[in-house]
Amino acid sequence: MSYDLVVIGSGPAGYVCAIRGAQLGLKTAVIEKDKTFGGTCLNVGCIPSKALLHASHLFEEAAHDFAGMGIGVSKPKLDLKQMQSFKQEGVDGNVKGVDFLFKKNKIDTFKGTGKITGPGKIEVGGKIVEAKNIVIATGSDVTRLKGIEIDEKRVVSSTGALALDKVPAKLLVVGAGVIGLELGSVWRRLGAEVQVVEFLDRILPGMDGEVAKQFQRILEKQGMTFKLGSKVTAVDTKGKTLKASVEPAAGGKAETVEADVVLVAVGRVPFTQGLGLKEAGVELDERGRVKIDDHFQTNVKGIFAIGDVVRGAMLAHKGEDEGIAVAELIAGKAGHVNYDAIPNVIYTYPEVASVGKTEEELKQANIAYKVGKFPFTANGRAKVNKTTEGFVKILSDDKTDKVLGVHIVGPDAGTMITEATITMEFSGSAEDIARTCHPHPTLSEAVKEAALGVDKRAIHM
Fold first, then answer.
1. Residue numbers annotated as active site
2. Where does 138-272 have alpha helices with state H?
3. What CATH architecture applies to the domain 341-453?
4. What is the mean pLDDT of residues 33-54?
5. What's the pLDDT tens digit per position in 447-461?
6. Contact indicator for 326, 342 with CB cutoff of 8 Å
């Protein structure tokens, strides 16, 4: 069997690459090692976590906010088994959707681990599949902590944290990044006491510092507690409750923290095991990522790589854009990804969204910039909905007014960040946003007001 394009991995990067390749007339196949298509994102990541975030948010709203709106309901009762079924229905629908799209686009599929055995040759399930072009889209795996064994029952990764069959009385989250805060939020809303331990002296490494500080205050108000500048060095699993050893990151005396479940959420690492990359001569970088050039080509002709397995942010939508770009390049067309305009969203409540540079990055690069900020407390829609926590911050070039970064903490921030991303994709200015008519009353008016604020002419503050 010979193909123009064979993609190893069917997560967002891989399946999008395969579909675009097929659209462009390439004879395409996909190899997937798991039982279902969709990779981590659809099966045990983005999609199931959003289902639980949505359901747990409604549960909390019913318990605490309905009465104030004149909606009388009895205290909501949690049926966790049904909530998990609700989550699984959403996962199944998305996974079947990918299967349908493969069939619709006449893409052949092979189940099993794909191993590159030579130029243009991949072994899968005892068969050899030939390909003019191979795209590695195998994604990432959870990062393990030395000395802490994950059993996915009491000491869990994000995978196990999405499948708990009861609400832990005490949940200890190791890592104050996106995954830890999202899943910590789910279980706090459902009744767990949640403590987050973070090695750094702040939450959300890489995000804008002001955003991180305000967001931490919001989460603390909701009931989460934080132990920053600390590390978990061991978890004793012998007793009825887990005993975690927590010590200062700089060194010092350890203390014991008891928990029913420990969630290890300290990041993800590229997944390259079993691919035969070493034998094929494909180079990896110092962090175990597949090395690529600006056209996603590895050092071996005909082998490309995209998504979490290569440099850049480990984000599904970044992988999708790379999938489209590499398919277009292979087909002889133009393909590009603007890495300066890749949005990032944390799907807690309120949401946190950002695109472009942070203030810290601009200062470090000695770039002169202007700041426009607008709080949701001054937004009409947020006021009437009583969703006033958070703000919009726009950073623009001091001379040209070109938008360099936008940061939002607030309800539906993940949707609103798209306006900023489009502006940046077209090298737009804060003035462009300010002069664009926004519908009233909407939360998005806060984005316009922040743009007006760049020149200190916001109307409603």
1. 440
2. 158-161, 178-189, 209-222
3. 2-Layer Sandwich (3.30)
4. 98
5. 999 999 999 999 999
6. no
